[in-house]
Amino acid sequence: MAGRKRKMLPVTDAEATIVKHKHQTDLSLNVSPAKLKNNPCETLENAQNCEAELSHYFTNNNLHQRLEEDFFKQSCISLAKAFLGKVLVRRCADGTELRGRIVETEAYLGGEDKASHSAGGKRTERNTAMFMKPGTIYVYLIYGIYLCMNVSSKGDGAAVLLRSLEPLQGQPAMRQLRAARRREGARLLKDKELCNGPSKLCQALNIPRCFDRRNLAADPEVWLENDPNINPAEPNDIVSAPRIGIESHGEWAKKPWRFYLRGHPCVSVVNKEAERQSVSGNVTSNLVPSEVQSHTGQHNVKKA
């Protein structure tokens, strides 16, 4: 796209940006959850076969810049920060494309990280994706009903949890998909509430469990893009805070390995103490999860 690159919008203008994108998409999208859920689950084998038949959307001539395998080949913490500002795209069976900008992530390093599913190098049928090549999707079930989406990085058993998105395209469809999982008569969700949590973004983008072990760099139904009009987040824009829902893991619960864009309205949980420390440049390695404020009022998921 021609013109000067815009600066990342993690501060006060982000709310206005959400409204702007909503108005751009409401007129063109009016689909039902039933249509979007039509055959969402291809087998892993079918998905891999589809990689050789990618449409013109994935060519270098397209305005959007799909992230390739080299992007994912970085350490877990580095990748968790690099994800901020990138765009997650979900292409549904009817061709509808849902887009959201990543504004919050968590890093799970495996090995000594007791809060990780792969702590101690333990490899199971469930967490196999964490040991696969960087860029592999890891989808797992929590509480028996909710899904969370992670992406593997460099490092044995390391992966990044995608916590929150800023909806960019397809908000009407996202709202319908979220409504299908809520009680009848519940109030209409605001745009900033559509994807402000790990399970919420999976519902809003119709991410099924069978996406587990897919290659995010080559899959025809879900991928990441670099927005050519947005500059990468600067260090001062990124807040480092303790991860959410892992209080039972002792010292590992205090590691500031959750990263989010400062002041962004779509962040699921704000940590004021972490924000003060990151402004002063004095981020501790064991930050106590105090003064935490949730935008959602909903309990956050745990890493079991």
Automatic annotation (TrEMBL):
Residues 278-304 are annotated as: Disordered. It catalyses: Hydrolysis of alkylated DNA, releasing 3-methyladenine, 3-methylguanine, 7-methylguanine and 7-methyladenine. GO terms for molecular function: alkylbase DNA N-glycosylase activity; DNA binding. Keywords: DNA damage, DNA repair, Hydrolase. The keyword DNA damage applies. InterPro entries: Formyl_transferase-like_C_sf, MPG, MPG_sf. Pfam families: Pur_DNA_glyco. Hydrolysis of the deoxyribose N-glycosidic bond to excise 3-methyladenine, and 7-methylguanine from the damaged DNA polymer formed by alkylation lesions. This is DNA-3-methyladenine glycosylase.
